[in-house]
Design brief:
alpha/beta; 3-stranded antiparallel beta sheet; single chain; 5-stranded parallel beta sheet
Length: 1446
């Protein structure tokens, strides 16, 4: 195995590799490693406890892995029994002399090197820096080997046990056993006290992950001394000398430094060795044994491992006889202590763990372990796992040391070394025996197991979402405990840690939240938490720059009222916005609709994404508990970002336990997929056995080879559920079947008893039974905490224990210590929702209800005292969970109190725009009322029913529920004023259901009760008279007068204005000729009784009406006035409905491109206002503005798709019917229509019949739109017969609308072009007169707005002159129509004018000139992205060219 070479210095030409023997490399590398770490501390975890530097051990591990990898490639004959010869016997193989290590040479030594370079690039250097022959090198190797074999100065000093203790039977007294243990185990974690200077330093070194001083080795020629201070439990005065051979002058000289720690490669040069050829056909275990001796020398810092098992080492200085058998005997006795014996007992719950340990049935014997092997564990301080690896290699052929753990294949050795190299924090970290004996097995979240494929898939999805305009949704589902949350965290951490330049991806902003079953009554619980945590993080000092960007963007985009609305749900936002909302009282806010809040939150997310120029990730876990409001919000966020036109991506990542297929979450995902959004569902099951073994290995910090038998049992019993396995392991530890061994200094287990142990099939049942080991007060506190969900703020716990006089904090802290809870960021949380579920199930139903009611009422008292709305929502939610406890028939006072509390909570939730939760509170309040409540508690009943009816309507609940609620109000209301709210809800309900005529009838009935009487049919005289009266009332009022007009004080008249506005909407659909009368009455009531917050809508409608009558300047004035009135009242007090009408009127005066920008701003306001009808209307009209304004068709399609999604989402079929014809036109022109193109009149007739069956014939607006677009498609593709057929039908449906919509004006423009074409083809004066009328209408508009209408007037004039055969005038008009369209940025009409001119020249016999105009038309259509039109026109142009050529 070769390692990457060091970077070369191009200015110096020298060899980059130096060949060393093992002993040469060891001596030099120790020096390099210690000098490198001098005063800096070590990096690796357990490596720092070694007397050698961490760098040395890392390199040694690489060398060991390289050698094992080489031997894995050697073919051996299996099955042959070979006895490994001991040191001194004939035929012994000393592989240490055959190890060749190649390192990088420094610049200084390279200048002195003149030796020969081998075939592999290595260079052999003699002492002093001169090159030597191979014979000299071999001689040097021989000398070095002899020195290493015969020198005993390399023995290592250790702490010696008390001679009086050795050989004596162990005492039964704990204090004497403790003393014995202190004397024989050099493990500072077991016996050094906190007041011990060296023990304290070692303790700090462990806790600080290597921040203590490492050992320093100072080389002086052949002498090597080591400072053992603070290492391995040794006192600082102990030292040892290393006089190993091969330590030449050039290796220690500061002038000729070699980079010993920069390894290029390492290998065994055994192919040319005679002894290797003699033994290479032997048992593979022999090779493992021989390599083990090499490893011993490598990791012991130069000592030879060929010491006879039975002889004692002679240590330098004070020499003692040390029998390793005594160590094993003593520690095995400690492992086998009975129940009443305690060494580390602390008196707490966990102290019983050590007393229950039993002797391991298959103990490991080390009776024949050489002294040097024990030194690896003790005095040198090497990690236990590395020592065991060497031990198991050396004893593999004898089977003396633990037959089941010795190595049988070199591949296993290689694999274990690889684990140590890749995961030193796990496999080179020694077990803290004291903590393990005292606290048992600690189950922490330290990795993901068996989910690599799913992780890669999700990461790829994230990458695909991080591209411009990317939008991806992914849901991870599975049973509880399979690792959904861990997988989500893995992807989130990957996204956070990814570099900005990777795949040219932007940075990411991550918002994470978790839903809770018990917290469903709290509005947007998980979403609010996600926003709040992010804003809290953003407000920190180190994030000041990002915080400033978000704050500035927020203030520029949203008004203070809207920002404060968000901040009420996200309190941490106040830390970012500063004093932006200071001075706003509660009265300045508004009782926002849920749709308004959803828009504001979507807008907030977009502001964050754009301000920080980042991909946005929204990660929400446990979506099975998500409330309907949150699901609706998530849906809107996905729709908004999918249709976003900025350059930032969005990735929604969710976790969900397996739920029913009709869950709202899956409906949302299915809906998103149907709309073409990239959605993915990943289902998790149990992990496989290999992953299970990796889990067990990681938790126990043992190599996977050792844990495989235990993992197989756990995987089988727990069905591969990772959490089940972890909980089972923790329980086995408490039962003593999995325990720490003092002899082996690691975890051991009893496989037979674990296999036979009874185990429930369900994880919750298992956790429930395991709770029995906890004290009663801890279980009781956990039960109380489980009533509040999976996580609870510490402040809430404190309030609860003060209000209910409980003691919760101390027992909960014990639960934290026992691994049942986490305590982080001032929050208690169960380690998993299944744990919370298990604790909750411990209680009987009656006990749960009692807890919910008792503690809910206690918190209500605190909430009302402190005016804490958030706490009141939690408290009332608890009361509602108590079931019948709150509705005791015997306690009327309790029921009324519960109803009043629910009314208060419902109003709070409604104010927070969570109408689903609000409805739940109102409904619980109604359920708490007893029979006769209308008589005994009238006002309470009226408010509850009105609140529930409003929420039911806004939530789109079944109409049956709404009818029950409104019927109750209408039946029991004591006056007509009390019925008004229900009456208005019924009117809106009729409109939503598409029952327009019913809505009109209902509105007239209510208005008559309010004193506003109308005839059921309006004659033209009535319409005219009404207009004249209104005009007279407004004649002497200036804009200033109207802006400062008095405010209405009569609530009945204010309600009448609201009914009239809704009636006007309905009249526009099916009785447009009668609509002006309703508009005039809105203005009259406002002028007589005062302006209401909705009066600006009346002026918007009035401006649209008078513009339609021809007074466009007057209409423009009142459109501007309407916007000013709206801005003055503010969105907090008024409806944004009028903005859609004002924009349409303004578009007839101001350039259409600027109006589009104005409409974009209005859209934000309307979305923030939250009215469903206004949102859909404005979005619908915006699509037409983009289409007729000449925007590229791909962008126009984006707006049509966005509008279609909203319409489908809100199930507003009237808007859908009006939208689809225009959308089909755009798709057809663009050439991406998924619908079959309509090629003939017959096809279109069939289609129209289908539409007529679906659309009410009374809805003339929808039918007119359908007919017009049939005609438009036929005209654009020059199908004359179809065009004429549809023109006739359009004329039949075309009626007089009294509203000034821009798309209707465009209808007149194209109607004129079609009429002139038919009139010319048919020589029909009738059609030509119709075209002239359309031209006159456009001419009036061109006088007011040349930018928008001049080019259209010129094109109609050209067609008129063509019909009248005034060809010279026609030519001029065609040319100026083209140039005017180009000047005014109407790309679509520039193309159309060129095409019409082409037909003119072709029909007048000038084919060559027509080709030029057709070619320009094709060019413009291509720019407009009308691909289907381009293809059609190019085909026609080819025919023209062919005719011209012939």
């Amino acid at each position: 195995t070769h390692f990457p070479p060091p970077p070369k210095n191009n200015n110096i030409n020298y060899p980059t590799r130096k060949k060393l023997t093992l002993s040469e490399w060891i001596a030099g590398a120790i020096n390099d490693g210690d000098n490198h770490n001098n005063g800096k501390g070590s990096e690796a975890t357990a490596l720092l406890s070694s007397s050698l530097s961490s760098e040395y051990l890392k390199c040694a591990l690489k060398i060991a892995h390289s050698l094992a990898d080489q031997l894995c490639q050697v073919q051996v004959v299996a099955g042959q029994e070979v006895v490994v010869q001991k040191q001194g016997e004939k035929g012994d193989i000393s592989w240490s002399n055959l190890v060749a290590i190649y390192v990088s040479a420094g610049a200084a030594v390279a200048n002195a090197l003149n030796g020969d370079e081998g075939d592999d690039g290595s260079v052999t250097v003699a002492a002093g820096g001169s090159s030597s022959s191979k014979e000299g090198e071999e001689e040097e190797k021989k000398d070095n080997t002899e020195k290493l074999s015969n020198d005993s100065d390399g023995a290592h000093s250790i702490i010696e046990p008390d001679p009086d203790i050795l050989g004596q039977p162990p005492s039964s007294k704990p204090e004497e056993l403790q003393a014995m243990l202190n004397s024989i185990i050099p493990d500072h974690s077991l016996y050094l006290e906190d007041d011990d200077e060296w023990g304290e330093d070692l303790h700090n070194a462990d806790n600080n992950n290597g921040n203590s001083s490492s050992s320093v080795l100072c080389h002086d020629h052949d002498d090597v001394s080591v400072d053992r201070k603070k290492v391995g439990g040794l006192r600082p005065e102990k030292s040892w000398n290393n006089k190993s051979g091969g330590h030449t002058d050039h290796q220690t000289s500061h002038q000729t430094a070699i980079q010993y720690l920069n390894i290029s490669s390492a290998k065994l040069e055994i192919e040319n060795d005679e002894s290797w050829h003699h033994h290479k056909q032997g048992d593979e275990r022999m090779h493992i044994y021989l390599l083990g001796r090499v490893f011993f020398e490598l990791f012991s810092g130069g000592r030879n491992g060929d010491t006879n098992t039975n002889e004692h080492a002679q240590l330098q200085g004070d020499s003692y006889s040390f029998n390793s058998l005594n160590l094993v005997t003593a520690t095995n006795i400690l492992d086998a202590l009975g129940e009443d014996d305690q060494i580390f007992g602390s008196g707490d719950v966990s102290s019983d763990v050590t007393s229950q340990q039993t002797k391991r049935q298959r103990s490991i014997s080390v009776e024949d372990l050489p002294l040097q092997l024990e030194q690896l564990r003790s005095s040198l301080g090497l990690p236990i796992s590395l020592c065991d690896l060497i031990v198991n290699m050396i004893h593999c052929s004898e089977g003396v040391f633990s037959k089941d753990e010795t190595y049988s294949t070199m591949a296993d050795v290689k694999k274990d070394l690889k684990h140590m190299l890749e995961y030193p924090d796990i496999y080179l970290c020694d077990l803290n025996l004291k903590d393990a004996c005292a606290s048992g097995l600690h189950i922490d979240d330290n990795g993901m197991f068996g989910r690599d494929a799913e992780s890669v898939s999700l990461k790829e999805l994230y990458l695909s979402s991080s591209v411009p305009n990317g939008c991806v949704c992914a849901i991870v589902s599975g049973t509880g405990g399979v690792g959904k949350t861990t997988l989500l965290n893995e992807v989130i951490n990957y996204a956070k840690s990814s570099s900005r330049d990777e795949r040219e991806r932007k940075d990411c902003v991550v918002l994470t939240g978790k839903f809770d079953k018990v917290s469903q009554s709290q509005p947007y619980s998980a979403v609010s938490s996600a926003f709040n945590e992010y804003c809290d993080w953003l407000s920190r000092a180190e994030n000041a720059s990002a915080s400033e960007k978000v704050s500035l963007a927020l203030k520029q985009d949203l008004s203070p009222v809207y920002v404060r609305t968000i901040a009420k749900l996200v309190p941490s936002l106040f830390k970012i916005i500063g004093d932006y909302v200071d001075g706003l009282d509660d009265t300045d806010g508004f009782d926002g609709t849920e749709k308004r809040l959803r828009f504001l939150l979507c807008r907030f997310l977009r502001i964050i994404r754009q301000a920080l120029d980042s991909t946005l990730i929204l990660c929400l876990d446990d979506l099975q508990w998500a409330d309907k409001s949150s699901i609706a919000l998530i849906n809107q966020v996905i729709m908004a970002f999918d249709s976003s036109d900025d350059d930032h991506g969005f990735f929604f990542l969710g976790g969900c336990r397996e739920t029913e297929s009709d869950h709202a979450l899956w409906k949302m995902i299915s809906f998103a997929a149907d709309l073409g959004i990239h959605t993915t569902k990943i289902e998790l099951g149990g992990i496989d056995q290999e992953a299970a073994n990796l889990l067990v290995s990681t938790k126990l910090k043992l190599l996977p080879r050792l844990t495989l038998p235990l993992a197989a049992i756990l995987h089988h019993r727990c069905k591969g559920n990772p959490m089940f396995m972890e909980q089972f392991m923790a329980e086995l530890c408490h039962e003593g079947l999995l325990r720490p061994s003092l002899a082996l200094r690691r975890w051991v287990w009893d496989e037979e008893k674990i296999f036979e142990r009874q185990l429930p099939d369900d994880l919750v049942e298992f956790i429930t039974k395991s709770l029995d080991r906890l004290p009663k007060e801890v279980i009781s506190s956990l039960c109380i905490l489980s009533c509040f969900g999976t996580s609870t703020d510490c402040s809430l716990v404190e309030k609860l224990q003060n209000a209910a006089r409980l003691s919760l904090s101390d027992p909960l802290d014990i639960a934290v210590a026992q691994g049942m809870l986490n305590k982080k960021n001032k929050t208690y949380s169960f380690v998993h929702d299944r744990v919370q579920e298990a604790v909750y199930n411990v209680m009987k139903p009656e006990e749960r209800w009692q807890y919910h009611y008792k503690y809910g009422m206690s918190l209500c008292t605190v909430a009302m005292r402190d005016n804490d709305d958030d706490l009141l929502l939690i408290a009332v939610g608890q009361i509602n969970l108590s079931g019948s406890m709150a509705h005791d028939d015997e306690d009327a006072e309790r029921r009324v109190k519960a109803a009043k509390l629910n009314l208060s909570a419902g109003k709070i939730a409604r104010g927070m725009s969570d109408l689903f939760s609000a409805y739940s509170f109102f409904d619980h309040g109604i359920s708490a009322l007893r029979k006769g409540h209308w008589e005994n508690h009238y006002q309470l009943s009226l408010e509850l029913y009105n609140g529930a009816a409003f929420c039911a309507l806004a939530n789109g609940d079944k109409h049956a529920t709404l009818e029950i609620l409104t019927d109750q109000i209408l039946h029991y209301a004591r006056c007509y004023a009390d019925k008004m709210h229900a009456m208005f809800i019924i009117l809106i309900s009729f409109t939503h259901k598409g029952k327009v005529l019913s809505a009109i009838e209902h509105a007239f009935d209510v208005l008559s009760q309010l004193g506003e009487v109308f005839p059921r049919e309006f004659t033209p005289d009535v319409v005219s008279q009404s207009y004249e009266n209104t005009k007279a009332m407004l004649r002497h009022l200036s804009d200033k007068d109207l802006l400062n007009y008095k405010r209405v004080h009569d609530p009945m008249k204010e309600m009448a204005i609201k009914f009239l506005i809704k009636l006007s909407q309905a009249m526009c659909l099916c009785r447009p000729s009668d609509q002006p009368v309703i508009i005039m009455r809105i203005i009259e009531i406002s002028l007589v009784h005062g302006f209401s917050p909705q009066s600006h809508v009346g002026f918007a409608l009035y401006g649209s009406f008078i513009a339609r009558t021809g007074d466009i300047r007057g209409g423009y004035r009142f459109a501007k006035l309407s916007k000013a009135l709206f801005n003055k009242a503010g969105a907090a007090q008024s409806s944004a409905e009028g903005l859609a009408y004002t924009t349409q009127t303004i578009a007839h005066i101001e350039p259409i491109q600027s109006v589009i920008d104005l409409n974009t701003n209005d859209c934000k306001v309307i979305m923030a206002e939250g009215c469903e009808y206004d949102i859909l209307l404005n979005s619908h009209l915006r699509c037409y503005l983009y289409f007729w304004g000449g925007e590229k068709l791909s962008r126009v399609l984006e707006f049509f798709e966005e509008n279609r999604r909203m319409v489908i989402q809100h199930k507003h079929m009237s808007f859908l019917a009006m939208l689809m014809p225009a959308r089909r036109t755009v798709l057809t022109l663009h050439g991406t229509s998924v619908e079959p193109l309509l090629n003939s009149a017959n096809d279109l007739n069939v289609d129209s019949n289908k539409v007529d069956n679906k659309i009410e014939k009374s809805n003339l607006l929808q039918s007119t739109s359908f007919r017009f677009h049939q005609m438009l498609i036929a005209f654009m593709f020059r199908r004359y017969d179809d065009t004429k057929s549809f023109a006739v039908k359009y004329s039949e449906f075309k009626i007089g609308f009294w509203m000034m919509f821009f798309h209707q004006t465009m209808n007149s423009f194209y109607d004129g072009l079609v009429s002139y074409w038919i009139g010319r083809e048919e020589n029909s004066p009738k059609w030509i007169r119709k075209g002239a009328n359309c031209k006159l209408e456009i001419q009036k508009l061109a006088e007011l707005s040349p930018w928008n209408f001049q080019n259209k007037l010129y094109l109609l004039s050209a067609e008129e002159q063509f019909c009248e055969r005034n060809f010279e005038f026609a030519e001029r008009y065609y040319d100026i129509a083209v140039s005017s369209a180009k000047d005014h940025k109407f790309l679509n009409e520039e193309a159309l004018a060129n095409e019409m001119a082409g037909y003119f020249y072709l029909e007048t016999g000038r084919r060559k000139k027509s080709i030029r105009y057709f070619s320009e038309a094709v060019k413009c259509y291509k720019q407009w992205e009308a691909h289907a039109k381009v293809k059609s026109l190019e085909t026609y142009l080819e025919e023209v060219i062919a005719m011209s050529s012939s």
